[in-house]
Amino acid sequence: MTMRDPRDFTPETGMGRNGPRGLVARDYGLWANPALTLVRMVKVQVMAVVLTTLLTVALPTPTAAASNEQPPAAASLQTGVGASAEGRGHRHTHGPDGLELDRGRRPGAGVVAEKVDDTLTGGWSTADPLPVSAVDNPDRFQSLPSVHLVYLYGSEVKKPRTQFLNMFEADARAAQELLQQRYGRSVRFDERVDGRMDITVVKSRYRTSSLGGSKQFDLVSSELKRVFPDSESPRKKYIAWLDAPSKYCGQGELYGDWHRDRENWNDLRTTGVVYRPYDPSNANGGFCRGRTLLHELGHNLGALYSKAPSAFDGAHCNDDKNDVMCYASQVTSGTDTSGTSSGQFDYGNDDYWDAGAVAGSDNGGPELEGGTGEHLKHLNWWTVNLSRFVCRPAGDGPTTAVPCDDSSTVHPTLDEFRYHSGDEAYPPPPSQPMT
User: Fold this and answer.
1) Which of 45, 48, 67, 70 is closest to 57 using CA atoms?
2) I want to staple 266 with a disulfide (CB 3.0 to 4.6 A). Which of 30, 228, 302, 335 is the partner?
3) CA distances from residue 244 to 18, 198, 216, 327, 390 in whole angstroms, order as listed
4) How far apart are CA 313 and CA 30, in angstroms?
């Protein structure tokens, strides 16, 4: 997280100083001035500080010229709207995701855990330990886009706690299973040729005390770039478990690119971190579990668009306590499904997961056969199911096997991208996202 001037941020309000252009930019996602919407090449680090109900939103940082382009309104979608290559997002930074992600599971929480957090806490043991490796092993999925997992520890540590690699693997499998149960899809995690998760054990250049400081996300990000240079890993995203003290559960990057096309920047490299806020001697090693992993990965994959119907702070939803990307404490009364579901990944399919083939009126989607005048109903902004890192099922139905090793499933079909009757070609993003 980069702040150009500490005077431009007031922790109590999350707002900065006024000015003709808001100094470093007055674009706050939901509070954005349309005249100051930034161009596509501006990276977003999404992280929201939550200590129970307190949310603070830090200043965004502009890195490019402004554009007047806005995403098309869902109710008035027309061919060609949003066809410009500009308006591809803005960079804004939130604080890290607090213990809200572990609500009900943290010591002394005083509230009942949501079912989604139990669902996403995979059962594990040390009976069949994951092999310890300090390198990225040969990939089972070869050159296909994948999410690589990392365990990062301090430079002074003599014996890293590699027994928790099995726990990290279990939580990643639980995330895959939730998506497969809900949608018949999965996240393509990086696996070894033997089918086990490929988790690289990295000894940091920094001591644990530094990794546990105020710049821990920046240090993790720099360490991952050192060990996994962009030139050697152009098709990967990274999730790291940081074995250092923290006050938070997790943190993840997000591009504010709403366009539904194959060049969306949310398919570029990103970093997510799972933190260790608890006593390291507890059964989980002190790490946050539950929805934390899939929540940060959801940000990395593009969840959620700041103007989605249930977005309340530009990055999270508030329509279901059992939704991976929602803060339970912010859910509006009467709209959650916590008591009836094992977990939601976009409750209602109206924020960050496009249900796809739903017949509707002429909303600009591809017309259905039969001359009924009905069209496929899609959301009109980027959704996680469009990502190259999400595997396509071989057929329909939630029980269908997900062939993540099939190169023909790397990206959704053209029709799934289209939110109107045409499909514009956008210029490709740069090889390096702007920071």
Assistant:
1) 48
2) 302
3) 37, 21, 9, 24, 30
4) 7
Residue 366: DSSP 8-state:
P
**pLDDT, tens only, 107-119:** 777 777 888 999 9
Cα–Cα separations (whole angstroms), residue 50 to 30, 31, 53, 207: 18, 19, 6, 27
Give alpha helix (H) positions in 276-413: 292-300
Could you give phi then psi for residue 227, rounded to 5 degrees? -80, -35
* Beta carbons of 152 and 227 less than 8 angstroms apart: no
pLDDT tens-digit series, residues 124-145 = 999 999 999 999 998 888 788 9
Structure tokens given for 433: 């996202």
Strands 375-376 and 359-360: antiparallel
Tell me the CB-side half-sphere exposure of residue 343, using CA atoms within 13 A: 23
Q: Which residues of the chain have pLDDT under 70?
A: 1-95, 338-339, 356-377, 393-402, 408, 413-416, 418-435
Q: Is the pTM of this model over 0.85?
A: no
Q: What is the largest CA-CA distance in the chain?
A: 70
DSSP string, 98-162: -GGGGTTTSTT--SPPPHHHHHTS----SSSPPPPBSS-PPPTTTTS-EEEEEEEE-TT-SS--G
